[in-house]
Design a protein that fits this description.
- The chain has 167 residues and is an all-alpha fold.
- The protein has one domain.
- Helices cover 80% and strands 0% of the residues.
- The longest helix is centred in the first third of the chain and has 24 residues.
- The radius of gyration is 16 Å and the shape is globular.
- The mean pLDDT is 88.
Length: 167
Amino acid sequence: MKSKTAIGAAIGGAVLFAAAGIHLHAGYATLARISLLGAALGALACIDVAEHRIPNRIVIPASAACAVLLAVQQVSLHRFFPSLALVALMLVISAASPASFGMGDVKLALLVAVGLGDVATRALLLGLVLAGVFGLLLLLRFGRPEAARSLPLAPFLATGAAVVVLL
């Protein structure tokens, strides 16, 4: 049942992101890249909510494929510096305090960075802010014990990416 839900979420993500790309008159490589990103984010958000993990079997191939599609487009690397710097910061925070971000969350942020390109910084920041606000609401409503639980980050990063793609 879980795999059917993840497949449905992947299809929904791909359709949503592809529709946004078509609406924005994206080229073939960009359309393929953001559709792949949408599919991966849909599946990963679903899995992260259910299992509290980001499977490497999805995030690594999706990141590699998005990176290849970026290379085909010959996009300048300096345009990605802000989002890659944010991913590097998440990596440092994860190494210093593994309870804050898991390595799956860092790899997911890298996927968003290579999937969205130069607009990824906005998506990542929006997703992190949404997660922070949700965590704060949990703290205010249920107190420290409930708020101290692990919060799946994939739905928030996926939401941030969807908002940026749709706007």
